[in-house]
Amino acid sequence: MSRVIEFRDALCEAMTEEMVRDERVFLMGEEVAEYDGAYKVSRGMLEQFGSRRVIDTPISESGFSGLGIGAAMHGLRPIIEFMSWSFSLVAADPILNNAPKMLYMSGGQFGCPIVFRGNDGAGGQLGSTHSWCVESLYANVPGLKMAIPAFPSDAKGLLKTAIRDDDPVFFLESERLLALKGEVDEDPELLIPFGTANIPREGTDCTLVSFGRPVHFCLEAAEELAGQNISCEVIDGRSIRPLDVPTITRSVRKTNACVVVDQSWPFASIASEVAATVSEQCFDDLDHPVVRVNSDDVPAPYAFDLEQEMLPNARKICQAVRTATYSS
Amino acid sequence: MQQSGSMQPEAEPTPPQVQQAGRDETSALLASLPMDTVNHWLREMMLIREFEVRTMQAYQDKKIGGFCHIYIGQEAVAVGTIAAITPEDPVVTAYRDHGHALARGMDPKYCMAEMYGRIGGCAKGKGGSMHMFDKANNFFGGHGIVGAQCPLGAGLAFATKYRDEVINKERSKHVTLCFLGDGALNQGAVHEAKNLAGLLDLPVIYIVENNGYSMGTAISRGTTVGHEITRKADAYGIESAVIDGLDVLSVYRDMKPLVEHCRQTSRPAFVDMRTYRFKGHSMSDPRKYRTKDEEAQYELLDPIARLSKAMINNQMLTDERFKQIGKEVRQEVREAIKWSVASKPPGKDELYKDVYVEKWGPYTGTSLPEMLGGDES
Question: What's the ipTM?
């Protein structure tokens, strides 16, 4: 049975169900308890689980991230919420130096089953300090997994998978998607495995690969291009580490064209990685080099129009597809 | 009157010394402890000392690579504090970690083989000198980034308390020991950890092994109120103690009630453990930042010599027995080295093991063929 709920409620359901299922799971972060979550993602959870399992922290990302890692090393399964992934930068040492390396550095003795989650990407005129897209920066680190849902159903299924995963998972949400509604199954075993991309729209002329919020821009562009007789296949990667390369290459072999849309900066980015991989594996299938659409290589500006200009959007994606398919 | 914001450290010798236990006090302490226990501590400290002497030699012979930090002089801290907890209590420390690993019960051969970079090492040769781990003995590392272990220590205490109280519905009954150097006092992570520990009532004891130097920077040059660092615990509402870390008897005497107090109240504590590292910060340190006089002054307080002399004075030890223990630990460390030399370096098959719990990589630019069943072309 499924019903239509908001993205934020899908996240809340995932956490709630997993906390009912496993007493070792707890939620910790700024404003997660009494405030119901800065973005109301954990609404009602304090009431249901009490203050021992839904824990407000001071503004102290380095401290509570490290605390979560220590707890994970000793057998608990923490969910650590960052109000924004932009604030995770002050916790870079614990989240990059401890969580993903603990298992390896201890010769397999101490794992780190922890989920770090929160808003990633531009929220809307927040200026550059608050508009980080951390995926390219953090995905470089071996030992962590990274999931980035674009739809409510995936938000729930991927988060449940993340909580049950034995390795550290970086879970990237988008403030701009939290109110998005969609069908979500009520099945408490709705688990979407990492490394399985989804194809929300099939097509024949060009493969669009994206992750998180820009998947919606891709769908918008695909709709517009359909009116111009260009048929796009949209791939929603859903997880970045692991990356479902076979689904991408299978599609490119069919369409012979590829555009990668990634909201982080272009230099050494997820888009670069996908473009390189597609070029390596589909060299003979490509009619045009892979085209990348990223945020512009500048700090995110505040001014509304300028910020919109900086981010990937349907217009830029349409242009990229026309280039990749020689339709311009 | 001085404002606290502009308060300067007092002109005191570096590092500041603590009141030493007198002869009568020492005799009374010795009389209050089982003979086997004191003998065990002496042997442990001698084992760590011998282990470190051989480690330095092996390092100079290029058998050990990377950075290597020697614990000589500080043996009484690891031995006396860990004697005050139970085997189920978690321990976590910084990178000067060989002494803690051994005091926690790690077999010296696993510790030495780790530095030799062998598969027989405690972390299969993937951690090295600064990153010793021993799950069976509740030893949660050896951490290389200064202060990084302090939030982890809060998390270990959170985990024991959560397990005891939330899952098992019992009283919180564990205490975590988290060691740090005085050089870590100025790291943000340490302050955040203390605040969280105080705020969330976490049973963790932060033990500052105050050897007076943050690498080559004397404490008075690196931190405010360096002569009275317990004030940095007051700021977080955490109880504190100053302990003579050069005397294992004092360490145990003062730590034992503190540990039990933290266990009972499920609250954190902070210890200014006054000690001295007799060697350099690491193996490449000519120690130009301190005087030979100062070093000589501290050598008079050598924790092993102090304990053995006190034991001899109190008829708990003979010269022959002392020499015999020396022979035994030399033999034990020789065997650890022999074992390390015989252990193989980790093979290439180890390179991709333990990156993830599941099998992983190698990363070939084709994503993760082993996880995903390979490229379908």
Answer: 0.97
